[in-house]
Design a protein that fits this description.
Order of helices and strands: HHHEHHEHH
Number of helices: 7
Oligomer: single chain
Strand order of the largest sheet: 1-2
Largest sheet: 2 strands, antiparallel
Strand content: under 5%
C-alpha cells in the first residue's frame, strides 16, 4: 500500500483481505452459532481418529462458509454471480492451498542449499498445483455451479456487507433466520432481473 496505493482498488487485493478478515472474525462466531463441533466430540468421544477427522472436515467447512459469506458481496459486484459449490469446493481447496504455500516456503529455503532437492520439491508443488486447478475446474464445470445475477451498485454492496456483519453478530435465532431469508430473496430478485436483461457490457 505504501508503494502502490492503487492496489486498494484491485479486486484481488480486496478479495484476499475480505476472505482473511472474514475467516478471522467469523470462524468462532459461526462455530458457536452452529455447535456441531461439540456434538461431534460428545458423540464420537470413544473413537478418537474418526472424531479428529470429522472435526477437521467441519472446521474446514466453517472456514469456507466464513470466507464465502465475507466475499459474497464482492463476488456479486465484480462477477455478477453467486457461487453455489464454492462452499464445498473450499473444503478441499483451502487446505490444499495451505500445503502448497507451506511447501513453497520450504522450496525457497532449499534453493539456497541444494538445487537438486529444490527441483524435486518443485515437481511435487507443480503436481499439487495441477490437482488444485483440476478440482477448481471440475466444480466450476458442474451444472448450476453458480447463479447469474445483476451487478448491483456500490451502495448495495455496502449494505450486503452490513447484513453479513449482522448475521455474524446477532444472537437471536429468529432475527438471524429473517436476515438470511431477506438475503436469499434479494439474490433471487437480482437473478430474475438478470435473466430478463438484454444489456451486455464487454470490456477488453
Amino acid at each position: 500500500m505504501l508503494f502502490e496505493p492503487r492496489e486498494l482498488f484491485n479486486a484481488g487485493f480486496q478479495f484476499s483481505f475480505c476472505a482473511v478478515l472474514s475467516i478471522i472474525y467469523g470462524y468462532k462466531k459461526l462455530d458457536k452459532m452452529i455447535p456441531l463441533n461439540q456434538q461431534i466430540k460428545d458423540r464420537f468421544g470413544d473413537k478418537p481418529f474418526l472424531r479428529k477427522c470429522l472435526i477437521y472436515i467441519w472446521g474446514s467447512f466453517i472456514v469456507s462458509l466464513a470466507a464465502v459469506l465475507g466475499t459474497m458481496p464482492l463476488t456479486i459486484y465484480y462477477y455478477g454471480i453467486i457461487p453455489v459449490f464454492a462452499l464445498f469446493a473450499n473444503v478441499i481447496v483451502i487446505p490444499l492451498i495451505g500445503i502448497i504455500v507451506l511447501l513453497g516456503l520450504f522450496f525457497i529455503i532449499l534453493t539456497v542449499f541444494s538445487s537438486f532437492l529444490a527441483g524435486g520439491l518443485g515437481n511435487i508443488i507443480n503436481l499439487l498445483f495441477v490437482a488444485l486447478n483440476r478440482i477448481v475446474s471440475y466444480f466450476n464445470d458442474l451444472s448450476y455451479s453458480h447463479i447469474d445475477v445483476s451487478i448491483p451498485p456500490v451502495w448495495f454492496v455496502l449494505i450486503m456487507l452490513g447484513v453479513v456483519f449482522l448475521i455474524f453478530n446477532i444472537s437471536i435465532r429468529q432475527v438471524r433466520i429473517l436476515l438470511v431469508g431477506i438475503v436469499i430473496s434479494v439474490f433471487l430478485i437480482l437473478g430474475l432481473k438478470n435473466s430478463n436483461s438484454e444489456n451486455i457490457e464487454i470490456t477488453f
